[in-house]
Amino acid sequence: MYTSGYANRSTKLASTLSTANRAESTDVAAGLISEVVYREDQPMMAQLLLLPLLQQLGQQSRWQLWLTPQQKLSREWVQSVGLPLTKVMQINQLSPGVTLESMIRALRTGNYSVVIGWHAEELTEEEHHRLAMAAEEGNAIGFVMRPLRHDSLGARQLSGIKIHSNLYH
Question: H/E/C letters for each residue in the chain?
Answer without folding.
Answer: CHHHHHHHHHHHHHHHHHHHHHHHHHHHCCCEEEEEEECCCCHHHHHHHHHHHHHHHCCCCCEEEEEECCCCCCHHHHHHCCCCHHHEEEEECCCHHHHHHHHHHHHHHCCEEEEEEECCCCCCHHHHHHHHHHHHHHCCEEEEEEECCHHHCCCCCCCCEEECCCCCC
